[in-house]
Design brief:
- Among the domains are: 92 residues, Helix Hairpins (Orthogonal Bundle), CATH 1.10.287; 47 residues, SH3 type barrels; 85 residues, Alpha-Beta Plaits.
- The model has no long low-confidence stretch (mean pLDDT 80).
- The protein has 343 residues and is of the alpha+beta class.
């Protein structure tokens, strides 16, 4: 009986396929293409109108009462929103980049400052563009209400530090106590601020090492800004000379070397200070002022001064003494000392 049933079903299937082939053979190529196009269009329309998720929205009925109505966000509307945001973002990026180029070329602002300003402006434009996209496509913000709980948990466990650094970056940017190009000392790390980003800032040292500093550090810690109100800073070179040296001559030589250096400022004028009567030498300090910029390296200036001072001291017969050291020999038996004859 089972074999008879299977054979019957097989015959019916073959008959159906035969009829289908006959009907298909009678239709022209254009009719087949039209049927296929209609099928694809119908399926695409169903997919386009497919509901992504449901949300509640407040409406006013005919009686003027506020009622909550459930609506569905279709997939097609979400796709349009994403495409509109992407196109708007690229247009905004092109405009801001062009504005940055114009400002830098006209000397209105530096390259580093303009990059920081453009980065922050793009973050603001991205936020406004997202809100505008939702408004244009009539997508209420309540659609994303389901993210509320997850967002709170994320802030509590992972994003609290990120948000704190973001807000700190906004405060730093508007207060302008720290700007791109300033030289800072942050917990012993000395360098030039090369970037102020949304989460952290980059400090570039004289050795070329870049350190990322979270923006919250600028508000919570003690920061030394060497160039906040002026790029002029005082540096000093210390030197010791032998006891009995002409101290006035030493001071003149120190000031002379500073005056001859092209990167040392004439005002305030360099000054030589007789600091102390040391145990092994007379201690002097040469104080001078330099203006920190891309062409001035304070460490190289100090090195140049030491070379110049050593050369002038040698010419004038002034000796830089070596420190005196006492040597003690502890032995179990007396040491035999002999004087060697000359020659």
């Amino acid at each position: 009986r089972l074999a008879r049933t299977v054979d019957l079903q097989q015959r019916q299937l073959n008959a159906w396929l035969t009829d289908f082939d006959q009907v298909l053979a009678q239709r022209s190529m254009s009719q087949r293409f039209s049927d296929g196009y209609d099928t694809v269009r119908l399926n695409a329309k169903k997919l386009w109108n497919l509901g992504v998720w449901d949300y509640d929205v407040e409406r006013i009925d005919a009686d003027g009462k506020k009622v909550m109505k459930q609506e569905t966000l279709p997939l097609g509307q979400l796709v349009w929103a994403i495409l509109l945001f992407i196109v708007g973002y690229f247009v905004a990026a092109r405009i801001t980049r062009r504005a940055q180029t114009i400002l830098v070329s006209r000397g209105r602002i530096g390259e580093a400052q303009s990059s920081t300003l453009r980065r922050w402006l793009m973050a603001l434009l991205a936020f406004l563009l997202a809100i505008l996209t939702l408004k244009v496509l009539n997508i209420p913000l309540t659609v994303f209400a389901f993210l509320g709980g997850a967002l709170v948990i994320g802030i509590g466990f992972g994003t609290q530090t990120m948000i704190k650094n973001f807000i700190s970056g906004i405060i730093v940017l508007f207060e302008r106590n720290i700007r791109v190009g300033d030289i800072l000392n942050v917990d012993g790390v000395v360098g030039t601020v090369s970037e102020i980003n949304t989460r952290s800032s980059i400090l570039r040292s004289a050795d070329g090492v870049e350190t990322m500093i979270p923006n919250s550090v600028f508000l919570e810690n003690k920061i030394t800004n060497w160039t906040h109100s002026s790029r002029k800073i005082r540096r000093a070179v210390k030197v010791g000379v032998e006891h009995g040296s002409p101290v006035h001559k030493v001071a003149e030589i120190l000031v002379e070397c500073a005056d001859r250096h092209g990167l040392i400022l004439k005002e305030p004028a360099p000054a030589a200070l007789f600091e102390d009567f040391g145990q092994n030498a007379l201690q002097f300090e040469l104080g001078y002022w330099v203006e920190l910029n891309d062409q001035t390296n304070s460490a190289l200036v100090a090195s140049d001064l030491r070379f110049m001072i050593d050369k002038r001291f040698t010419e004038e017969g002034i000796i830089i003494p070596a420190p005196n050291r006492d040597t003690r020999l502890i032995t179990d038996s007396p040491l035999q000392v002999e004087w060697a004859p000359k020659g």
